[in-house]
Design brief:
The complex is a heterodimer of chains A (about 170) and B (about 170).
Chain A lengths: L2 E10 L4 H11 L3 E10 L2 E10 L3 H15 L2 E7 L11 E8 L4 H11 L2 E12 L4 E11 L3 H15 L2 E6 L3 E2 L1
Antiparallel strand pairs in A: 1-3, 1-4, 2-3, 5-7, 5-8, 6-7
Chain B lengths: L25 H16 L5 E3 L9 E4 L13 E21 L2 E19 L5 E7 H14 L20 H4 L6
Antiparallel strand pairs in B: 1-2, 2-3, 3-4, 4-5
Classes of the chains: A alpha+beta (about 170), B alpha+beta (about 170).
């Protein structure tokens, strides 16, 4: 049975990165699993599950030419696949405010204490260079219930000067 | 009564358009009972559509009464259902018995006015909103060969509205 690997790529954004990286993996005998690919600042980042019948070293060799050509940093880790076991989020939390150091650590720390298991977090820095704003969207599982999270968010809004919003995710199964 | 097998994507039959029902006979009544039993036998769901069990006729069953404190009409058998008018839109998360282990965000009309025949063949009108309206739109899509996968909106930046069903009253019938 093939092994699963987590591949990480980071480099200056340019067109064609996804196509060239995934072609190299496909032609080298790898099979793609789930992925997160996103432009962060001026960088393009990829985290990609790959099923591959060989060692991590041989997978790195397959990737080297394309990474050299595109000037991408790469990293390869052996992982367990664990596909087909998605956790369902039951809450979406939005937080935004004037950007400052510590905003993510403070808010996610309080939410973790209130029982939140983060499944997906996406954040952007908007506004201007002089007055940047930080915007965060989180999907997660409320391990201690939604009321506990609401209380934590109210406190964050009051004490940390951020705007917060919680919306229960009521997944419809049809 | 029987629990029927549910087709799962990538079974291409889920992408076909179902035909209108012309006759409500004993055989159809039996099928409706089987479809209902199938819906109840699986994981808790808001509805089921005939094509999900391989019968390509325009019939769905809806029931969101298991959710506390939301406006609903109880369990409905909808034959040849049609959305006559709609209002607003809202993003919510959906999954499907025919698409295991995946859920995603879908934009749906917030309110709908629906016309359908009931099990006795009588034409009925319904005003629906929120979760029940979403369930109907999800199931009606099956009749046109559409899955929620055809309507996914980006996870990033998709807007959820807060507790819509608590903010508006169900229109009087």
């Amino acid at each position: 049975m093939s092994d699963w690997y987590m591949l990480t790529f980071v480099g200056r954004d340019r067109s064609g990165i996804v196509a060239k990286v995934t072609s190299a993996i496909f032609e080298g005998g790898g099979n793609l699993g789930e992925a997160s690919m996103v432009r962060l600042g001026g960088n393009f980042t990829i985290m990609l599950m790959v099923q591959y019948d060989g060692s991590g070293e041989s997978l790195e060799k397959i990737l080297s030419p394309v990474c050299d050509a595109l000037k991408l940093w790469k990293h390869v880790d052996r992982i367990e696949g664990e596909l087909h076991h998605h956790l369902e989020p039951d809450v979406r939390i939005s937080i935004y405010g004037a950007d400052r150091a510590g905003i993510v650590a403070e808010t996610t720390g309080a939410l973790a204490e209130a029982g939140l298991n983060i499944l997906n977090l996406e954040s952007d820095v908007g506004g201007t260079a002089d007055t940047p704003i930080y915007i965060m969207e989180i999907d997660g599982v409320a391990g201690k219930g939604i009321d506990v999270l609401e209380t934590a968010l109210d406190r964050l809004a009051r004490e940390k000067n951020v705007e917060t919003r919680l919306v229960p995710i009521d997944t419809l199964m049809g | 009564m029987a629990v029927l097998d549910i087709l799962t994507y990538p079974d291409s039959r889920l992408k076909q358009i179902s035909r209108p029902i012309k006759v409500i006979d004993e055989a159809l009544q039996q099928f409706i009972s089987d479809l209902e039993e199938t819906m109840l036998a699986g994981p808790t769901s808001a509805g089921i559509a005939a094509p999900q069990v391989g019968r390509f006729e325009r019939l769905v069953i809806i029931d969101v009464s298991f959710k506390p404190n939301i406006p609903n009409h109880g369990r409905l058998v909808l034959i040849n259902p049609e959305i006559i008018s709609h209002e607003g839109s809202v993003v919510g998360r959906e999954g499907c018995l025919s698409v295991p282990d995946f859920t995603g965000n879908v934009s749906r009309f917030e309110r709908i006015h629906l016309k359908a025949s009931d099990r006795a063949g009588k034409t009925q009108d319904y005003d629906m909103l929120g979760y029940e309206a979403r369930a109907v739109q999800h199931e009606l899509d099956h009749l046109d060969g559409l899955l929620f996968l055809d309507r996914l909106v980006s996870r990033r930046n998709s807007l959820f509205r807060r507790k819509v069903h608590n903010q508006v009253d169900l229109p009087k019938q």
